Amino acid sequence: MSKLHDxxxxxxxxxxxxxxxxxxxxxxxxxxxxxxIQGVTANAAVFAQTIRQADDYDQAIGQQMAExxxxxxxxxxxxxxxxxxxxxxxxxxxxxxxxxDGFVSLEMDPALxxxxxxxxxxxxxxxxxxxxxxxxxxxxxxxxxxxAIQTLITDCESLNITHIFTxxxxxxxxxxxxxxxxxxxxxxxxxxILPTAVASFSVGAIDAAVxxxxxxxxxxxxxxxxxxxxxxxxxxxxxxIFSGPRWDQLARHKARPLRPKWTRTTPxxxxxxxxxxxxxxxxxETIITFSPExxxxxxxxxxxxxxxxxxxGGAEDHLxxxxxAGVDLDAIVHDLQAEYLDxxxxxxxxxxxxxxxxxxxxxxxx
Length: 366
Hints:
Order of helices and strands: HEHHEHHHHEHEHEHEHHHEHEHHH
Number of domains: 1
CATH superfamily: Aldolase class I
Radius of gyration: 20 Å
Number of helices: 17
CATH class: Alpha Beta
Strand order of the largest sheet: 1-2-3-4-5-6-7-8
C-alpha cells in the first residue's frame, strides 16, 4: 500500500499524466497501477520527445509505413495503440470503481478548439479507434468546445474537459455537461452506462502566470498561493452546481458529477516542493493528476489530510490581497486558455513533424 491508496481512502482519485510505449510494455505502468494510479492521460509533448530521442515507436512507425499510412496520420495510430494497451491495464480499476475511474484519456489536435463540428467528429473517430469503454477524449472548455461537450455527452461519450483556468470556465463546462445528460436521458430510453466526464483545472499554469506580476508589484509573499485559492473556490462552486433539484433528478438515474481534476501539478517555481499542489488539493470527489516526478515525491514525502476544504476564508482573503496589490487576476487567467491552446497546437504539430522525420530516417535506413 502506498500513499496513493491513502488518498483513495480520503475520496480522491489518482491519475498519471504520462503515456509512453516502453513505459507501458516494460511493466512500469502496471507497477504504478499497483501503487495506486487509477487513470492515465497522454500529452503530445511526451510522444514527440520520445519519438525524437528513443526507439520506442520505431517498429510501429515502420509497420505503418509498410501499410501505406500517410505520414500525417501515423502519430494518431501510435497514440491509439498505446491508449488501447493502457485501457486494458486499467480495466480492472474501471470495473472495481464502477466506471468512476480506470480511464485512459487521449488528446486531440488543439487546432480544432474553436470548431465544434470537427471536434465532435474527431472525438468520435478517436474513441472508435481506441475501441474501449474506459477511453476518454479531451475537449477544451472553449465556447465551441462546450457545444461539443453537450453533443458528445448526449451521445453517451466520456470526456476529459481541459483548458480550464477559471471558475467561470468550469461552470460553463459543467452546464454543458448537465445539459448533455438531460438530453441523453430525454431522448434515449436505454443506455449501457451513463458517460463519465472530468474537468481538468490547470493549477501550476496559473501561478506561473500570476507570480511574476506579484513580484513586480512587490508582493512576493503572495506567490505560489493563487492557484490553490482558485481551486478551493472552484470546488465550492462544484458542490453548489451538483446539488439541488435539477441535479438530483439526474443523480436518480445514476448520473455522475463533473469531478474537478487538478492537473499541471508540477510547480513552475523551483523554490516550491514538488508536493506543493498535491498536498494542498486533497479532497473527496476530485482527481489529482501526477507526473512521474510528482508521484514519486508524494509517495516519499506527501502529507495526508483533507486540505481542499480547509480555510476557504483564507483563500478569499488571498484573492482580495492579490487585487489590492494591483494585479488584474481575471485578465491574466482568462488569457491563459488561448495561450495554452496556442502552445498545445505548436506541441501537437511538433509531434506530427517528429513522426514524419523519424519515418524518413527509418525509410532511409531501410
